[in-house]
Amino acid sequence: MSNVTLRQLQAFATVAELGSFVRAAAVMHITASALSTMMAELEHTVGLRLLDRTTRRVSLSAAGERYLPYAQNLLRGMETINRVAVELRSQLSGRVRIATSQVIAWTLMPPLLLAYRKLRPDVQLELMDLPVDDILPALESGRADLAIILPTDPGPELQAETLFKTPVFLVCHSGHPWAGRKSLRWAEVVGEPLIFTGVDTSQRINAVLPESLRVQATTQVDHAGTAMALAASGLGCAICAEYVRPLTRMHRLKMIALVEPIVSREFALYTSRRRSLAPAVAGFREFLVEQMGAKKRGA
């Protein structure tokens, strides 16, 4: 039975459907004699007469009537397997799990996910909004396929590429004296009550500011949403990346550009060195890089 081929089953199903060796051979683009030989080999292998042949017609035998549905099911299954393979190669289906922080999940990712769903509706996108310390471990363990986070030493098992850079802004409530300003120099905010998100944000910013300018957090929080709420209450001005803008609208806050110098925060896209990217994951990665590159170019 292991010698039965899909080509033989296709020949049998085609003859059964058309009731003619000549018509079936034409459909399969082979000669009638080659088709007859193929059917004889199938019947010999299975030890059953599947077709009753006369000089006028070809019909299914009793055994052939029982055998045909199983042959057709197998052929349909192979068609499905081939179609799935084509979809996978074409990045049309599959699953992509993206691990990132809550604020990026809230602000940056929804429009990107929506745009990609329109391009690849059969690709399942799973967004994992995790605490910062859990993002790269999720990628390392295989729970996530991609990770978006601030650059860090990824270790030997992960690799990173710059995904986007975003300038840093000052965020204040609408009644603040600075609310009408379009920009502020860093020298103006030194010594003011500042709210920072993340334990190392002030260190990162001070690392690129001149030595004469040093900012310090009056309040330190873990989540940008908390920073926005505190700023809205008048408890200080938040120092945030530009992508928090949707959150500022929720709290009716003002975003003011910080200049002299302009300070940017860089975010990286991480993948695993140990696992090759599935086609769907590779496709979404390319989409992310292209979209973020378009934003950077002002497209």
From TrEMBL:
Keyword list (alphabetical) reads: DNA-binding, Transcription, Transcription regulation
Q: Which Pfam families match?
A: HTH_1 (PF00126), LysR_substrate (PF03466)
Q: Give the residues annotated as coiled coil.
A: none
Molecular function GO terms recorded: DNA binding
Q: Where is the HTH lysR-type domain?
A: 4-61
Family label: Belongs to the LysR transcriptional regulatory family.
Protein name as it appears in the record: DNA-binding transcriptional LysR family regulator
Q: Which organism is it from?
A: Ottowia thiooxydans
